[in-house]
Amino acid sequence: MSLYDLEIADWQKLLDNQPSFRSNQIWKAIHEQAIRPETLTSLPKPLREKLASTPEFGSGLKLLHLSSDNQHLTEKALFELDDHRVIETVLMHYPNRSTVCVSSQAGCAMNCSFCATGQQGFFRHLSVGEILEQVIWAIARTRTTRGKKRLSNIVFMGMGEPLANSRNLFRALKRINENIGIGARHITISTIGIIPGIKLISNLDMQVNLAVSLHAANNQKRSSIVPINNRYPIEQLMDSLKVYTETTNRRISFEWAMIDGLNDTDDDVRELIALCIPLQAHVNLIPLNPTPGWPTKGSPMNRVTTFAGILDNAGIAVSIRDNRGTNIDAACGQLAGTLADRISGEKFSADDSAKIDLGALLD
Ligand code: SAH
Q1: Based on the structure, what is the number of domains in the chain?
Q2: What is the DSSP letter of 205?
């Protein structure tokens, strides 16, 4: 439970002995300024003290560890939830944007063979507040390390399958958009291809971007690395994406982790092109990041660029994702990696200096 799980009506109830503008004042501050209510100096001191000890807030996300590359361009936060589950959030700064990669579940039930989160298994959905608090942390952290720069983009590419937690995801999206003020066009949902969720997104009143983790373009191969393909096979997935593009007038992108000898052959690229053309899909190639539970290697870089070249020649928009965060286990599919493994089952006992209180960061 997080204070961001409270809706405005809950705040009104909680503050019913206060002047009526208080709930709006607090609601605005916690979303727009990303600060905790008890630190809001425009509130009377007794109220701040009361808020500091309000049980409804729960402890929210507790920052266990923060790993950074040396220029703070990529930072990975490891958060402990109320029930001691651990999730990860990655913040990446580029010259013209700052993007946070948010988790939607603790663990993941999709069990994709090459993904560290899948290898760990599924624990539970994140609540609306737990999703939002990751964004709030990223806003505050960007302010701390980048001065005037603001968090600009949100990608749901952290731990978990966002469309398997669509109820909380959509509520969180609405709050990100309406209350935090980050526009739908700056938000990307990455899905393994949960068709009922894609149908919901097609009819959402927000124009968020959709990325689909395809990784293989025939059922036999895709099912061998992405088990959910047995339930939502490629033909049905493509039908749902056609509806999405027609309804929203937006292009989708396909994510494709490049796996040596498995999905990087000439046949693979031919099959992929055939799927892209009717949707005018963009392709995002991801050099495979190593995970402990899967021995297969990533494609050599020259194969990645050749594969990209073939797509480009066929008129398909293609990009190669940079391997941000590999050295701090924060790259795609590496979340839930080393540190989370070390602390699972035991109480966290890493170096205390690595512990930073989320409350302090939000000040
Ligand atoms: N469940 C969602 C979002 C989380 S994963 C989804 O599947 O899209 C975000 C992206 O990282 C997905 O495209 C996923 O397939 C990819 N990924 C997972 N493990 C990876 C790895 N080891 N190397 C490269 N990309 C990986």
Answers
A1: 2
A2: S
